[in-house]
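Subject: two folds for Thursday's group meeting

Dear M.,

Sorry for the delay on this. The cluster queue was jammed most of the week, so I only got both jobs back this morning. I'm pasting them in the order they finished. Each block is the input sequence followed by the predicted structure tokens. Could you check whether the formatting survives your parser before we put anything on slides? The first protein is the one we discussed after the seminar.
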Amino acid sequence: MKLLIKLSGESLSERGGDGSFYAEPVLERIAEQIRALQSQGHQIALVIGGGNLFRGHKLTEKLSIERPTADYIGMLATVQNALILRDYFQTKGIATRVSSAIAMPQICESYIPKRALRHMEKGRIMIFAAGLGAPYFTTDSTAVQRALEMGADMLIMAKNGVDGLYTGDPKKNKRATFIKSITGSKVLEQNLKAADQSAIALAKEHGLTIKIVGVDMIKSALETKIGSVILPE
């Protein structure tokens, strides 16, 4: 299968640690899980967020910074995370390439869909950075867009601190119940916080299945007993 995995930036740091942006034990666990999926014969691409480094809305709230500028700064944070993952993966023997929607030829490739597909066919992990290269789009939307462009069979959204989709935030609402399977239409109707709503709508429109799992269960994401499934219809 061809899989695209969406990782949040926060998943790269360790909760309760020293407050650093990256934690090697976490990076090692992610690398091991990616390797496990790859060893099963799957082609894998990643989209990484930048929330561990920067969130644009926080800057616009504190300073007179326009939203597009803040969004571009957030895109740069995703590039930094992508480079960290690339180099770390390669120290573990996992061939990896970074493709950026904003041209940065000194440090990574520019996003060219056919080239990215070729890397995946050769067994390399592909990391897509800098979002879609335009403001007002989240990395959730980027993940759906790249999954569709790459012809992915499934988008795996790896969540930090939860094991799937719930009717509410299980950390704040003890009555929140786990959802094993649901359609994209129901997610939108019930305003469930699975992902950005525009991302869910895009996946629904184009028939893309989304699997939501905990970040520590990436290697088992294809097992039916793991996580939650958002079906197009």
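Second protein, same layout:
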Amino acid sequence: MAAAHAEAHHGPPIANQSSRVSASVLGMLLFIASEIMLFGSFFTAYFFVRVVNGIDWPPHPFELPVFVAGVNTAILVTSSFTMHWALQSIKRGNRAGLQAGLLLTFLMGLVFLLTQAREYSRVGFAPHDGAFGTIFYCLTGLHGAHVFVGLSILLFMTIRAFRGHFSPEHHHGVEIGGIYWHFVDVMWIVVYSTVYLI
């Protein structure tokens, strides 16, 4: 019997897997840990320029659009709730809730990114305007790149949702994409608080 089973199985042995965290979720969490280190290096540069060198933030005569960025923050934070709604909906078998949640999340993320691009065109300084301009554009631009990646993931998830690809038993694609999107939201709260408010 054992010999018959051994002959039936081809390929590498089946990997051990924790009963608490699936391999795909663990992979996403480890990826996010590496992204936190990437953001950490940019924040180190920010604190070095601002605290060690003691420059004014923002330096005269520049001003940061705190209100517009605050509204943008509210939009992005709200998108985390719609992402959570989408995941909970498919876990309960509510396909319409999944589709609506993903679509709303995508649209809010798109509004955030377009508003940030509009902010860049009107802010009045460029990356080459000293260390302040460089750090501002690097930190917000790095986050914007992550939002773009998140929107790409959301777009594919939304298309799949409308094609009926997810179910209460098979929703890992929504869960993993949601983890990434929540990371993007939390990182923006840190960027907004550090760059715009403090």
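Two things I noticed about the second structure. The CA atoms of residues 4 and 10 lie 12 Å apart. The two ends are 69 Å apart (CA to CA).

Cheers,
T.
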